[in-house]
Amino acid sequence: PRVTTFSDTARPRRYILRERESPEIERGVPLVKKRWSIAIACTIAGVSAWTLFWTYITNKEKISSSIVQELIHLLRNDHWVKIIFGDGIVAETKWWLNEHPRICGSVDIPQGYVDLSFRVEGNNGSETVYFTSMRRDETQPFEILRFKLVADDGTICKVDSENS
What we know:
Largest sheet: 6 strands, antiparallel
Structural class: alpha+beta
Distance between the termini: 113 Å
Radius of gyration: 35 Å
Number of domains: 1
Strand content: 25-35%
Number of helices: 3
Helix content: 25-40%
Low-confidence stretches: none
Mean pLDDT: 86
Number of strands: 8
C-alpha cells in the first residue's frame, strides 16, 4: 500500500465574507434569562382558570338547588308578578356561564341561611329577584325575610309566597 505523508498543514481555502453572512461578534458570557415572568404568567393563568371554574361550578350548584327552582316556579305563578311584569318569566342567562343564569349569594341549608339575588326576564322587561330566608333554630322552619322583585325602571313588587 502506498502511504502519503504531509510535512505541513494544508493551505486554507478562500473565504468570501458577505454582508448577510457576517459572523456574530463575541460578546463574552451570555446572560442567563430569568424565568420569573413565565412563572408569574403561568401562575396568573392557573389562578384565573381555577377561579372561573369554581365560579361556574358553584353557580351551577345554586341553579340546580330546589330553592332556586321553587323561586322561579313561584314567580311564574304569582298573580301580581304576571300583571306587572308579564307572562313568560325566565331566569336571565349569561353567555360566559354557558347560557346559564348568574345566581349571586349563598344557599346554606345546614346552617339555616339562604340569601340570593338573580335576574329574570319577563315580557315587560328585566327584573332582579331578591330572596332572603333564615332558620333561627334547627327545629323551626325557614322564615322568609325578603322576597321581592325590583324592575330596571324602579318598580318594586313584593312576592307573597303563601298565596302562590
